[in-house]
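Comment thread on ticket #2218

A.B. wrote:
> Attaching the input chain for the structure job we discussed in standup.
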Amino acid sequence: MVLIKRKYLSIIAFIVLPLFLFGCSTASNKADAASNVTEEISLNPGAMLKSEEGKYNLYNYDDGKYLKMDVDKVILAYDKESSNYIGINDDGKYFVSKGNKYDIKDNDISGLKLSKEGKYISYFIQDNGLKLKIYNTFNNTEKKINSNVTISGTLYDWYNKDTLIYYGVSNDGINGLFTYDLKEDKEKLLYKINEGFLAYLKATENDILFLQITLENKRTIMVIDKDTKNVKKLSSTMDEIKDVVKSNDKYYAIGKGKDNVESLYELKTDGIKRVVYDFPAIIEVEKGLALDDNGDVLFIGSKKRGSTGQQIYKYSSDGTISRIEDTGTDYTFVEYIK
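C.D. wrote:
> Ran it. Output below, let me know if you need it in another format.
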């Protein structure tokens, strides 16, 4: 009987101990997952960060007004479709996907972007030159690409939710714009540049816009239609572009015109039209542009050069300019993807 009892207890221990260990492991995994969960955020076009008392606070834009959000988050980029976003805190940059927060492990990154529908993040690291890295945000795994192109600087963007577009030179010496389809794992030449180089590149919902410069320093803004792949010349009177938005079939750029003046311009096939003169006196071109739900163009300026305060202005479709926020010293738009 003693032998049978000992054998019975051994069987019980053999069954119960692994279950106990498995239960502890499962509980530990759940705890790790729970610590990784964060609240989701809902933002509108035009959302921004405002410097206040030594830190940046998040403000949403609603019905022509900025409202401070009751969250302690600094969000850099936000996708409307998925509510995924890229943020930054004291520990570095991170991304949130489906309510889960993941730290970006690489340091000293540049060109950080979030894809349409928030499926991927992408950025460059220093690795014997700039190297592009891509992560699938849904499962936090790196997506390797087999590219034969050396990208020029950080001139790239997301063509659509699964495809990148970038400017560079292929291994066989072709200078141009290339696309890389992550689903098909295929790289294609979209536009060959016979002379010169590109100084700016941006993808809008329906187009690809870029600034092409010849060896004689002739500058031309070109547009490629995503559907037809047709290429057209938009303007040749813009020296430098910092950002571009498209609203109601019109392009607006912030940068320098031929007169070397930093301002907001409407890009036209027969030239450019300066739409801001002395209100505000200074436009902060490095801050870029944003569009609100009505298609009005938002930009950041200041009343005079060297002043400590900044303001946010709105250029409406009827040509009027209004100041909509003026209580901060520094503003930054949240990159809004929709």
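A.B. wrote:
> Thanks. Noting for the ticket: The longest strand covers residues 149-158.
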